[in-house]
Design brief:
The complex is a heterodimer of chains A (480) and B (240). In chain A, strand 7 and strand 8 form a beta hairpin. Chain A is globular, with a radius of gyration of 22 Å. In chain A, helix 6 packs across helix 7 and helix 10 crosses helix 12. Chain A is 41% helix and 19% strand. Chain B is of the alpha+beta class. The longest helix of chain B is centred in the middle third of the chain and has 17 residues. Classes of the chains: A alpha+beta (480), B alpha+beta (240). At the A-B interface, loops of A face loops of B. The complex binds iron/sulfur cluster and FE2/S2 (inorganic) cluster. The site of FE2/S2 (inorganic) cluster (FES) has 12 residues of chain B, from loops.
């Protein structure tokens, strides 16, 4: 237990099992005001070293060890980088569409899981409701139909992953320069059976998030909110795209910072700051510097940044979403949930369109060309922009890997959200149930990877410890 | 056919006729009885090193891949006692090297993994040794990942006897033992060729052709649907 200056430190530590975990420490000044909030996330480490010396074609499969919750995102991002290593970045239509289907399947299952297991209790019961009710079991009891839909939607996304990657986790579908299989007619027909149902249910999920947000706008707008820059990739014509496109950054007002940046030159645009108290770096937009250049990624940033969705239903929802903030970027933290559900609907529409596309049964799976020694693969993962950067030597062995995961990009925003919430809700030297809940709700809006270990239970357990500035324990609360 | 031309014996209660000079393993294969093996390969002279093929011949342990058939012997193969010995050997092989099945490109086509599945091994029971092993990727088309080598000597025999070369050899003893190449240090400096038979014979993912990776989709790999040994066992069910 350390204290800095005259600040007291409150430690909030989620109890975790396997995946990364985090803790929150709040520093109080002598007036019991929150002066500083720090979210500590134990990120995967040693991975960049582990990967050194491995053969480059192994990378899209072995990077899936990084994350138990969205392995397909790492699979796709690494494959995109390795496409360039083998000079096969201009994929065949079959390969490109198989990957798109896989990637949208991943979005669909990830967003469905987040929504129904983690955020729907907050949205349906209100985040001030009793925790005994405000959980996935409570949702199942009061809204059994919705809970059933959540489970089946997630399952559908997993079936899409199985059909395109070969396995629900640790699949091998994307290989350098293409894919190793197309979609059989039997697989296609099986998936087509339920797709219309999935679209209807996705529309229902958007409605839950939208109705809640619009009805409670006054309370939600200031909750853990702040103005920020937004980063995502967008297609050449400005359309929303999670697989391919250039980087676009806009400020809180919607002004362009850069647009269609060359992904291969991301280091010209993004830098990472190291802070002594955290293993996780703090990325920022270079031209603005670390103070002003931090940004948000993920559903909110993507919906703010894109000019339009190329599917009808999602585009109509986007317009409604943007109208709430007069077509300016939406900077409300709790609006992440609504944006996430619009994306869920879009992924579902894209999957439907792809399943009707005969290219998925094509036989031309892999292309290769001029070999390269270095490559960057950037995609949008469910939680935000994901950067994979590799160097490969003439023996085909990886000599350098640099990854920026979305939770890292959202590091500063999450810290700010926690600080804002803590400042607004702390009282005295006691850790109140309300404070705990509010911090949890704010972090959860970003769907950071630290919550992945707790997804199965549908809650985020916390331990809170409160110390005085001599390091003595004043109070300790557990929330399981 | 004169009596002297066949040797009759019993394996797992089944009467088997073999030709003189055959090993128990060869005779069992022809009869459609699978005796698990790792270092043995039908195109190679037996090596008798892994002991997975251990059977009881008239009650005494022998390696089936080296032991010739003899008239009237009673061989026990598929019995719990021996299968437990095999499980232990497999368990030790897994922790002795660095085997990461979940991202290994040999997954689904690997004999070590397939044996583990056949014997119901789901998690290692001994502590991992995490030995420091290296990868030789110096050759443009071939690589050796010694993390995955189980020292079966198949590549050594294949290069010598099938390819007429001597590309591979063992050096060192005990835990230091490793597959070396007959050059100063690197695969690139040998006369190995991408068409060598030795390159198709490694039971695990240690000696591999480059850039094949995961071209075989999950579901279409060798052991995805049938346990190892079922091709041999199929002969027996077909005939009787
Ligand atoms: S490289 Fe393969 S074939 Fe050669 S000894 Fe090792 S495991 Fe056996
Ligand atoms: S197969 Fe007989 S000892 Fe290895």
């Amino acid at each position: 237990m350390t204290t800095s200056n005259n600040l007291k430190r409150v430690i909030i530590e989620p109890v975790t099992r396997v995946e990364g975990h985090g803790k929150v420490s709040l520093l109080l000044d002598e007036h019991q005001q929150v002066k500083q909030a720090r979210l500590h996330i134990v990120e995967f480490r040693g991975f960049e070293r582990f990967i050194q010396g491995r053969l480059f074609w192994e990378v899209p499969v072995l990077v899936q060890r990084l994350c138990g919750i969205c392995p397909v995102s790492h699979h796709v991002a690494a494959a995109k980088a390795m496409d360039r290593i083998v000079g096969g970045e201009n994929l065949t239509p079959t390969a490109r569409k198989m990957r798109l289907l896989m990637h949208h399947g991943q979005f669909f299952q990830s967003h469905a899981l987040h929504f129904f297991h983690l955020s729907s209790p907050d949205l349906l019961f209100g985040f001030d409701a009793d925790v005994a009710v405000r959980n996935v079991i409570g949702v199942a009891a009061k809204y059994p139909e919705l809970a059933k839909q959540g489970i089946l939607m997630r399952k559908y996304g997993q079936e899409v992953i199985l059909a395109t990657a070969g396995k629900k986790i640790h699949g091998t579908g994307a290989i350098p320069g293409g894919v190793n299989a197309n979609l059989s007619i039997a697989q296609r027909d099986r998936l087509l059976q339920d797709i219309d149902q999935m679209i209807t249910w996705s529309q229902g999920a958007v409605k839950v998030a939208k109705d809640y947000t619009v009805a409670n706008l006054e309370t939600l707008a200031p909750f853990g909110s702040f103005d920020s820059n937004h980063l995502s990739i967008v297609r050449q014509d400005g359309a929303y795209d999670i697989y391919d496109g250039g980087l676009r950054a806009t400020d809180a007002e919607g002004n362009t910072i850069f647009d269609h940046a060359d992904n291969q030159k991301y280091l010209d645009y993004i830098a990472e700051e190291v802070r002594p108290w955290s293993y996780m770096k703090f990325p920022f937009i270079k031209s603005l510097g670390p103070e002003q250049g931090w940004y948000r990624v993920g559903p909110l940033a993507r919906v703010n940044n894109c000019d339009y969705f190329d599917t009808e239903l999602a585009e109509a929802e986007r317009r409604e979403f943007m109208a709430v903030t007069d077509n300016k970027p939406n900077n409300i933290t709790m609006a992440y949930h609504w944006a996430r559900m619009i994306e869920l609907l879009h992924s579902c529409e894209v999957m439907r369109n792809l399943l009707h596309d005969p290219d998925l049964q094509g036989e031309d799976l892999v292309v290769t060309g001029q070999r390269r020694g270095e490559a960057v693969g950037i995609i949008e993962a469910p939680r935000g922009t994901l950067f994979h950067h590799y160097k490969v030597d003439e023996n085909d062995q990886v000599t350098m890997a640099n990854l920026i995961v979305s939770t890292t990009s959202n590091n500063e925003p999450m810290n700010r959200a926690v600080r804002k919430v803590a400042q607004d809700h702390i009282s005295g030297q006691e850790i109140t149930e309300g404070l705990l809940n509010h911090i949890e709700v704010a972090i959860r809006a970003y769907d950071p990877c630290l919550s992945c270990a707790t997804h199965a239970m549908g809650r985020m357990p916390l331990i809170v410890e409160l110390y005085d500035h001599w390091g003595r324990l004043l109070d300790r609360k557990e929330k399981i | 056919m004169p009596m002297s031309q066949t040797i009759d014996f019993i394996i797992d209660g089944v009467e088997v006729s073999a030709r003189p000079g055959q090993t128990i393993l060869q005779a069992a294969d022809e009869a459609g009885i699978y005796i698990p093996r790792l270092c043995a390969h039908k195109d190679l002279v037996p090596h008798g090193s892994c002991r997975i093929c251990t059977v009881l011949v008239n009650g005494r342990p022998q390696s089936a891949c080296t032991q010739p058939v003899a008239p009237g012997i009673v061989v026990q193969n598929d019995i719990e006692k021996l299968n437990n010995v095999r499980r232990n050997i497999l368990d030790m092989l897994f922790v002795e090297g660095n085997h990461y099945c979940m991202f290994c490109e040999k997954s689904g086509n690997c004999e070590l993994q397939a044996l583990a599945y056949r014997f119901g091994i789901m998690a290692p029971k001994f502590p991992y040794q995490f030995p420091a092993r290296d990868v030789d990727a110096s050759h443009p088309d071939i690589y050796i990942d010694r993390n995955r080598c189980i020292l079966c000597a198949r590549c050594i025999r294949a290069s010598r006897d099938l390819d007429g070369k001597h590309v591979f050899e063992f050096v060192g003893r005990g835990p230091e033992k490793r597959v070396a190449v007959n050059a100063e240090a690197r695969l690139a400096d040998t006369d190995v060729d991408v068409t060598d038979k030795a390159l198709s014979i490694c039971p695990v993912g240690a000696l591999m052709r480059k850039r094949q990776g995961y071209a075989d989709p999950i579901g279409r790999r060798r052991y995805d649907h049938q346990p190892i040994g079922s091709d041999i066992e199929a002969k027996r069910s077909a005939t009787g």
